[in-house]
Amino acid sequence: MKSSPFAGHAAAFVTTLIWGTTFISTKVLLRVFTPSEILLLRFAIGYFALWCAFPHPLAIKDRRQELCFLAAGLCGVTLYYLFENMALTYTLASNVGVIISIAPFFTAIFSCLFLRAPRPGARFFLGFLIAMAGIALIHFGKGGALRLGPLGDLLAIIAAVIWAAYSTLTKRISTFGCNTIQATRRTFFYGLLLMLPALYFMGFEVSLSEFCEPAVLLNILFLGLGASALCFVTWNFAVKILGCVKTSAYIYMVPVVTAATSALVLHEEITLRMVCGIVLTLAGLFLSENKGAKKECEHVGTAK
Which sequence ranges are marked TM in the entry (predicted)? Predict the structure, then answer.
């Protein structure tokens, strides 16, 4: 039975709602683990959780499908987080937050080039510009100023392109007729496998004693079970229903959720500039959900 668009929008909303709160867990865990250690732990937990949720092997029909899963794992798990973490070491977190949000723009381009989807209309690009203006206000709404970090900013742009490639691959994978949990698990498998060479250079020194602290255990479980296992399944489900362009527009919501969570949990100040940014971002998201993108799903099945 075909799922309704409402289910796709709900899945995308839940995904960004959780992803927007992960910074709190990451902050807690960075006191104990390195970024690469957090990355491996969260996706390893997510992988085994997906096996428990649906313990059935995935039958691959041909080599091209396997290559799609491998590419999705490389882009969505290994390279995206690797480049994002590297970007954070060379430029401001606010810069990275803004730059990563351009991913929907590249997703629209890749969708047209590789999925033969119709080009998004003017509403999508107008929504993109409005949302980017709002996201910039949110990130720089605390009195901070934009300071360029050329290398870090370039790495963040690459990360945005990589996430767009992952979303496009996910849409292609959705045409294989696989169960979403099985497909996500296969992607995680390749992401973890391809992560191992990077860990050789970055190091991985984790002991069981570090999980004795309840805050550490709960936060790594949240990232593994919620932000990884659940959210990648719901994101892939949303892409399957809505298409990669419309789903990617929900990335605009992540800074909004992050700002709201900062105020509620960390008691950070919400300025007038940030409120204006939130309004603009949500308006941009609304405009980006244009009617033209509905035809995307109809065209993807013909992609070679």
Answer: 12-33, 39-60, 67-83, 95-115, 122-140, 146-166, 187-204, 216-237, 249-266, 272-288
Give domain status of residue 181, yes or no.
Answer: yes
Tell me which residue of 221, 178, 240, 219 sits closest to 28, measured CA to CA: 219
Q: Does residue 70 lie in a domain region? A: yes
* Cα 27 from Cα 23, distance rounded (Å): 6
What tokens appear for 154 in the block?
């370039």
- Rounded Cα distance between 98 and 169, Å, is 23
Residues 6+ apart with CB under 8 A from 60: 66, 69
Residue 264 in contact with residue 21, Cβ under 8 Å?
no
Amino acid identity of residue 54, one-letter, is F
Return the pLDDT at 100.
86
Residue 276 placed within a domain: no
Q: How far is CA 279 from CA 82, 86, 113, in A?
A: 31, 31, 32
Task: Tell whether the model's pLDDT for residue 304 goes beyond 70.
Answer: no
Distance in angstroms (rounded) separating the CA atoms of residues 33 and 136: 30
Angle between helix axes 231-242 and 150-173 (nearest 10 degrees) is 70
* Torsions phi, psi for 77 (to 5 deg): -110, -60
Strands (E), the chain: none
Q: Count up the domains in the chain and report the number.
A: 1
The SS3 call for residue 48 is helix
| Domain assignment of residue 233, given as a range | 5-116+146-248
In angstroms, rounded to a whole number, what is the distance separating the alpha carbons of residues 204 and 198?
A: 10
pTM (global) more than 0.70: yes
